[in-house]
Design goal:
By secondary structure, this protein is an alpha+beta fold. Helix 2 crosses helix 3, helix 5 (86-95) packs antiparallel against helix 6 (99-143) and helix 6 packs antiparallel against helix 7 (147-161). The protein starts with a helix and ends in a 12-residue tail after the last helix. The protein is built from 7 helices and 4 strands; from the N terminus they run H-E-E-H-H-E-H-E-H-H-H. 60% of the residues lie in helices and 9% in strands.
C-alpha cells in the first residue's frame, strides 16, 4: 500500500501525459539513473516519443521549482531528464530484467490504472457538481441569498468527494 502511494506521488502531468521521471524510476528499481537510461538507449526502437521524451529546460525548471525534481548537490545532472508515459513504463519491463524491476513495474501500472479509473468514475460527479453550482447561483440571485454560504457548501461537497486513500486492499486470506 505504501509503495502505491509513493508511486502516485511520483506521477506528474507534462504535455498532456501522465509521466514519471527517469531518476524516480531508477530509485524505485534500485538502479542508477544512467544505467536505466543506458538500457533504454540500447533498445531505443522500443521507446517512441509517446512512450518517452526528454524534458525541455522550461519543463525541467517548473518541476524543479515544484520540488518534483530535487536539486542535486555536487555536479547534478548533465542532461535534461527523460520521462516515461504509462506505455513507456510498461516497456521498461522488457529492457530491465531484474525481479525488482518486474515487481515495481506491476505496482506502477496498477497505480496508473487506478488513477485513470478514479478519473473516469468521478467525471459524472464533477459534471453534476457544476450543474448544482449553476442552479444554486441562479437560485440565490433570484432570492437574494448570500452567495458566500453557497460557495462554502460547494467547497465542502467537493472536499468530501476527494479520495482519502489510494491503493488496493490486499486480500488477507
Amino acid at each position: 500500500m505504501e509503495t502505491i502511494i509513493q508511486i502516485k506521488n511520483l506521477i506528474y502531468e507534462i504535455r498532456g501525459h501522465k509521466i514519471m521521471i527517469d531518476s524516480d524510476l531508477a530509485n524505485l528499481y534500485e538502479v542508477q539513473t544512467f544505467r536505466l537510461n543506458e538500457a533504454v538507449k540500447r533498445n531505443i526502437s522500443r521507446f517512441p516519443s509517446n512512450f518517452m521524451f526528454q524534458l525541455t529546460k522550461d519543463e525541467y525548471e517548473v518541476l524543479t521549482s515544484q520540488n518534483a525534481i530535487s536539486k542535486s548537490r555536487r555536479g547534478g545532472r548533465r542532461t535534461l531528464p527523460y520521462v516515461f508515459t504509462e506505455q513507456g513504463v510498461a516497456m521498461l519491463s522488457s529492457v530491465l530484467n531484474s525481479e525488482k524491476a518486474i515487481q515495481i513495474n506491476i505496482q506502477i501500472i496498477n497505480t496508473f490504472v487506478q488513477m485513470r479509473q478514479w478519473a473516469i468514475e468521478n467525471k459524472d460527479l464533477a459534471q453534476r457538481i457544476c450543474e448544482l453550482e449553476k442552479y444554486f447561483i441562479e437560485h440565490c440571485r433570484e432570492n437574494k441569498h448570500d452567495m458566500q454560504q453557497i460557495y462554502e457548501a460547494i467547497d465542502l461537497l467537493i472536499d468530501r468527494t476527494k479520495p482519502t486513500q489510494v491503493g488496493f486492499i490486499k486480500d488477507r486470506n
